């Protein structure tokens, strides 16, 4: 592996992990600056621990020092924020141009899922009333774009595997499979002004400027997103803040999905994010959700699990099982709890 490739792979790993000791993940700032190296012993938390790993620990500690207890309170606060954080309010357009705050995931899934691994070109794009003269060009362009984005996602996953000292195709082979369950979705978020024009709102208590796509994580392995010059994407920080991502049509935004969190045994955390609308323009985006075959078995990679420092956090399941469960929940629910390894590996999943 070249030095440049090695540097990029390590940057990817570093970007996906928040250090408990060296990053400012809470209102207390950098923990190592507060406690010094003695803190590793006082708190019983390894120097290399990430925030995600500490959140997964079973901690019920009371210390003699006020500062140590403050840190324990921040850990508890962050854990509760991750489990039951404040929910977004979002409106979804239904029949007869009415709006409601319930998102029907099953209907959306039926619209975006690709039931066949391969489709003939002339069936790839269709219109209800007429077929434009050059529709085949649109179909060809979309096909080429999907293939290019798939290759980009595979390259990112290969670099990720190398950074974790795993075989290079550990993750990418799941989406290179012929029957991989990947999806390209086109999103249009009308401006707040456009929404207010003639819309029938069923719940007038809803805060209109927040209309968009409510907070959630993506259930797949990886998401590659591209948008126009209109902002709206926000990601959640560990301390509960929402931070806007600057729009740039020439760049891609890459989100870790739930399955990658499981396969890295919690080292990489799936990104909780949302889309909010602006008052001046509509937002357009294209999201490629890189998913495995529905029959693929997903679980922590053995090379990442160590009995002492990093025990197994998740059980093994198929993508079909997880997808069925994920789309039965509300948009912002935490889906991974039921798949934690504290449940007996031989028990039936309750869904």
UniProtKB/TrEMBL annotation:
<dbReference type="GO" id="GO:0051213">
    <property type="term" value="F:dioxygenase activity"/>
</dbReference>
<keyword id="KW-0408">Iron</keyword>
<keyword id="KW-0560">Oxidoreductase</keyword>
<keyword id="KW-0479">Metal-binding</keyword>
<feature type="domain" description="Fe2OG dioxygenase">
    <location>
        <begin position="179"/>
        <end position="292"/>
    </location>
</feature>
<dbReference type="InterPro" id="IPR005123">
    <property type="entry name" value="Oxoglu/Fe-dep_dioxygenase_dom"/>
</dbReference>
<dbReference type="Pfam" id="PF03171">
    <property type="entry name" value="2OG-FeII_Oxy"/>
</dbReference>
<keyword id="KW-0223">Dioxygenase</keyword>
<dbReference type="InterPro" id="IPR050231">
    <property type="entry name" value="Iron_ascorbate_oxido_reductase"/>
</dbReference>
<dbReference type="InterPro" id="IPR044861">
    <property type="entry name" value="IPNS-like_FE2OG_OXY"/>
</dbReference>
<comment type="similarity">
    <text>Belongs to the iron/ascorbate-dependent oxidoreductase family.</text>
</comment>
<protein>
    <submittedName>
        <fullName>Oxoglutarate/iron-dependent dioxygenase</fullName>
    </submittedName>
</protein>
<dbReference type="GO" id="GO:0046872">
    <property type="term" value="F:metal ion binding"/>
</dbReference>
């Amino acid at each position: 592996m070249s030095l440049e490739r090695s540097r990029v792979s390590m940057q990817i790993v570093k970007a996906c992990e928040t250090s408990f000791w060296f990053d400012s993940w809470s209102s207390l700032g950098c923990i190592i600056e507060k406690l010094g190296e003695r803190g590793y012993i006082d708190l019983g938390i390894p120097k290399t621990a990430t925030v995600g790993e500490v959140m997964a620990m079973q901690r019920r500690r009371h210390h003699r020092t006020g500062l140590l207890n403050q840190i324990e309170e921040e850990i508890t606060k962050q854990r509760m924020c991750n489990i039951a954080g404040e929910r977004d309010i979002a409106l979804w357009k239904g029949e007869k141009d009415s709006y409601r705050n319930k998102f029907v995931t099953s209907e959306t899934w039926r619209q975006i899922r690709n039931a066949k691994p391969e489709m003939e070109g002339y069936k790839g794009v269709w219109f209800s009333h007429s077929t434009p003269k050059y529709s085949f060009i649109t179909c060809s362009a979309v096909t080429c774009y999907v293939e290019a984005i798939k290759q980009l996602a595979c390259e990112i996953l290969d670099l990720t595997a190398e950074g974790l000292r795993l075989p290079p195709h550990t993750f990418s082979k799941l989406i290179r499979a012929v029957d991989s369950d990947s999806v390209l979705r086109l999103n249009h978020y009308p401006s707040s002004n456009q929404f207010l024009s003639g819309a029938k709102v069923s719940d007038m208590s809803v805060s209109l400027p927040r209309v968009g796509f409510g907070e959630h994580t993506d259930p797949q392995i990886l998401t590659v997103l591209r948008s126009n010059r209109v902002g709206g994407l926000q990601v959640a920080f560990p301390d509960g803040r929402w931070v806007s991502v600057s729009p740039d049509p020439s760049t891609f935004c890459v989100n870790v999905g739930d399955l990658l969190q499981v396969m890295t045994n919690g080292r990489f955390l799936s990104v909780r994010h949302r889309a909010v609308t602006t008052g001046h323009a509509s937002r357009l985006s294209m999201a490629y959700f890189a998913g495995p075959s529905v029959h693929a078995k997903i679980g922590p990679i053995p090379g990442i699990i160590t009995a002492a420092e990093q025990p197994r956090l998740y059980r093994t399941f198929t993508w079909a099982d997880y997808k069925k469960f994920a789309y039965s929940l509300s948009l912002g629910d935490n889906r991974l709890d039921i798949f934690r390894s504290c449940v007996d590996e031989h028990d039936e999943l309750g869904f």
